[in-house]
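User: Structure tokens for this complex, please. No commentary.
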Amino acid sequence: MRSLQYRPSSFKQLLFSCGGAQTLARIHALIVISGALAGPHSPGHLIAAYARLGDVAAARAVFRTSSNPTISTWNALIVANSRLGSPADVLRLYRLLAARPGLARPDSSTFTLALRACAHLSDLEAGEEIKNRAADLGYRYDVFVCSSLLNLYAKCGKMDDAVKVFDEMPKRDVVSWTTMITGFVNAGEPLEAIGMYKRMRLEGMEGDGIAMVGLVQASAALGDVRMGCSVHGYMVRREINLDVLVETSLVDMYAKNGFLDTALFIFNRMPYKNVVSWSALISGYAQNGLAGDALSMLIKMQDCGLEPDLVALVSAILACSQMGCLKLGKSIHCFIQRRFEFERISATAVIDMYSKCGSLISARALFDRISSRDLISWNTMIASYGAHGCGKHALSLFREMNKTKINPDQATFASLLSALGHSGFVEEGRYWFDRMVREYRIKPGEKHYACIVDLLARAGHVDKAHELIKSMVIEPGIAVWVALLSGCLNHKRLELGQYIAEKVLNLNPDDLGVYSLVSNVYAAAKNWDKVIEVRKVMKSMGMRKVPGYSLVEVCGQLHAFLMEDKSHPHYEKIAEMLQKLGFEMRKMSYVPKTEFVFHDLEEDVM
DNA sequence: ATAGGGTTAG
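Assistant:
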């Protein structure tokens, strides 16, 4: 370093390669001693070096020593603020320059930095102003300026405007293409994103790792693991560096779509993982119903010394709702409240958890605390009422929702119709189904038909339900037929029931409950050959599949009950209580339907 | 030599 002391032009290189704060301080000292700052050399590089280390205070201090800062010196200071994540300060500095032309003339870097700050703040208005100013100064078609403008539009949900700018660009590079790809992914248009990539390849441009992240996300959104896999292979073949972000997006793509082994394999081999990588895996487990694995991963993450972020905790909440772990769910909720700001997404997840764990009151209390509810928060609360058999509450909440600016979607109606059905509100159900189609212009899907068929069939309108199915535009699936079938059973329409049962069996259901219903229909019709046949299928399935069970949490302890399961330590007491309850219910004139149930079950429980 | 695009959740 001593030999460099008197050669100020070498400082530039030195500053660029300098590693730590201490080295930088020494170089700074040398620069001061050599008198380089007083000379014609701009302190921009020194400021930039401090910016790279995130030391804005030092960057500012150096800036203040400069008497006539050039635009690069200004830019260096702006970068320092940008690095620190202070977009408001970036804009403040930009405005200072814009307001006083005598200071220094903003260049492409200045505009780019300012536009990026606007994207951070989602400030379209400021962005437009900057864009116009940039155009005036001759930067209208600058690739950097345009790319940051594209990004601003994309972040503000203005893909139409982004497309306009993009199409007018005379030159595009990998960044501008990638901005469009990512923009479409985030806009929920993965097919458009893929289309962009194809166009890019047609123009002879190769994508890099960041572009691949966009494609991996698009594959994940489409549930197209084959495509995701080929993107993965492409990166390996082209020796694109698989950094944390790329690998995390791969873990997410595989995990989300049920390929948890693959996801875990990649995850385990990641040389460096961060909180986001862990969260991606945890959410993958939770989304695939592997609640236990999700929770044990959360614990493992903490054992590795990492603090779970909100995403990991929301996934853990999801796991709790699947397992009915009210106590754990509550404590995670408290943990979230202590550490994070009140936030809509996590609140909605917690509402769902409380509801699924049986605590409807807590769910509603939290719903009332959300000040700006969105579609999903409304849908979740309406579905909660439905699941608890509170059709009235679901309907009145739905009416309240209609007073807001948020329009119900197909999920809202699926929840509403199911709520009305479970409460036996036949007329209301038919009424809202009708309005959904006519007024809200929502095309009924499988779920809606299943709800309405269930509702009609339950109320004894089996033929009407059958007619509705025949009038369906989409191919009726298992759910619809099962709804009708169960109506047939309840109303002793066994001739039709057997015909429907046949249809259901032909669709190869994957659900033991469906076979059980089919078997009951045949049993009611005394078609014993068929009963034996179906039970055989069930038996072979039972070996492969985990049968459904109910869970209840008592004092933080989970108790699971399977069909015909006597393994619980307090089985005797429980059976005794069940008998008592059955007796009480009969006294209140409730007549349980046991006539179709298998004999062994009948003897055991009733 | 300064600047633009990237990972997880209801």
